[in-house]
């Protein structure tokens, strides 16, 4: 039986930039390891994998909320030219519930994060899309 989301993993080429982005949203580094070897090769289905694996957690969130960053050392990770497109099949975006969307928008834009659209209200939520690391789409939602 499912209980809740556990984590989302984002593969990145610029690990430092991804750490900074998610820190702006309130995530803190919990663990940082290098994954490699036959067990990880089999589990990930990536022969010869060697990658930085960084776990970021949202402090005091219940249930626990994690973003895991995966930075491939080898093999080279394939770029996804459609990662930022919302009109495609597959992964679309991740959305975080927030308590003060206007305050968070001011904080992230002051740090250089770009908004993809102007905030809007839809289905009892104020929403906005952000340009996330590696072009992923991150949405913020404040229930009204």
Structure in words:
This protein is α/β, with parallel strands linked by helices. It folds into two domains: 7-74, Roll (2,3-Dihydroxybiphenyl 1,2-Dioxygenase, domain 1); 94-143, Roll (2,3-Dihydroxybiphenyl 1,2-Dioxygenase, domain 1), CATH 3.10.180. 19% of the residues lie in helices and 38% in strands. The protein has a four-stranded mixed sheet, sandwiched between helices. The longest helix has 10 residues, at 15-24. The radius of gyration is 16 Å and the shape is globular. The mean pLDDT is 96.
CATH superfamily of the largest domain: 2,3-Dihydroxybiphenyl 1,2-Dioxygenase, domain 1
Highest CATH level, the class of the largest domain: Alpha Beta
CA(first)-CA(last) distance: 31 Å
Rg on CA atoms, Å? 16 Å
The average pLDDT is 96
Class derived from helix and strand content:
alpha/beta
């Amino acid at each position: 039986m499912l209980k809740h989301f556990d984590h989302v993993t984002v593969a990145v080429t610029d690990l430092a930039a991804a750490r900074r982005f998610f820190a702006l949203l309130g995530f803190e580094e919990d663990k940082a390891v290098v994954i490699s070897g036959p067990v990880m090769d089999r589990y990930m289905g990536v022969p010869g994998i060697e990658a930085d694996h960084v776990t970021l957690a949202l402090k005091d969130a219940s249930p626990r909320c994690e973003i895991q960053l995966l930075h491939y050392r080898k093999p080279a990770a394939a770029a996804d030219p459609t990662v930022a497109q919302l009109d495609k099949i597959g992964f679309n975006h991740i959305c975080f519930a927030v308590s003060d969307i206007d305050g968070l928008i001011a904080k992230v834009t002051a740090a250089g994060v770009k908004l993809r659209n102007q905030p809007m209200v839809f289905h009892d939520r104020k929403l906005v899309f952000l340009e996330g690391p590696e072009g992923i789409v991150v949405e913020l939602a404040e229930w009204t």
